[in-house]
Design brief:
It is built from seven helices and five strands, in the order ββαβααββαααα. It has 178 residues and is mainly alpha-helical. Helix 1 crosses helix 4. The longest helix has 22 residues. The chain is elongated, with a radius of gyration of 20 Å. This is Transcriptional regulator, PadR-like family. Pfam families: PadR.
């Protein structure tokens, strides 16, 4: 995968969070737009509202960030304006090139995740933390969950939910909340 596949002029902007803090979005909004448009065509307003809802209002893309991104994605052949809805709102739809790029980006992320596992102990030294046996299991659980077929996702969610509850119980006991 080429580095350019993730780059878009004007895309690496700072985004204001509800708490006033600013953060670089990197390629996340481009990736989310492509993903969201695989579900159904949407307006820019729909994308802003959906992003806000998915992040519980913590991350709300501004119009000044999203609309130039949509224009660049359209010029790049990743999306098209499929219709003009009520009040002359453009309705965006993903193209085959957009689908191909999304698939490559997802595949790249999975491969990068596998490579990053090799550096987990170094990352623990840099950022703190101890991966230990539990961390090893967590990594393996993540890998297995990525490969669970859709028809078994509900069962997998139930199993991981029970595991999480048990871990919370252990944490509670450690802090004296028995």
């Amino acid at each position: 995968m080429k580095e350019d596949d993730f780059e878009m002029p004007g895309f690496h902007r700072h985004m204001k969070f509800e708490n006033g803090r600013s953060h670089r979005t990197g390629g996340i909004m481009k990736l989310y737009v492509l993903h969201s448009l695989t579900v159904e065509p949407k307006t820019g307003y729909d994308l802003i509202k959906e992003t806000s809802e998915k992040t519980d209002g913590i991350w709300v893309p501004s119009k000044g960030m999203l609309y130039p991104l949509l224009k660049k994605m359209e010029e790049g052949g990743l999306i098209v304006v499929s219709d003009t809805g009520s009040r002359s709102k453009n309705i965006y739809e993903i193209t085959e090139d957009g689908r191909d790029l999304l698939e490559r980006m997802i595949k790249h992320r999975k491969e990068a995740g596998k490579r990053m596992h090799v550096f987990r102990r170094i990352m623990a030294d840099i950022f703190g933390g101890n991966f230990g046996k539990a961390g090893e299991f967590l990594y393996e659980i993540h890998q297995v969950l990525d490969e669970i077929p859709p028809e078994k996702e509900e069962e997998a969610a139930s199993i991981t939910g029970k595991c999480l509850e048990e871990l919370k119980r252990l944490k509670g006991n450690e802090s004296g909340n028995s």
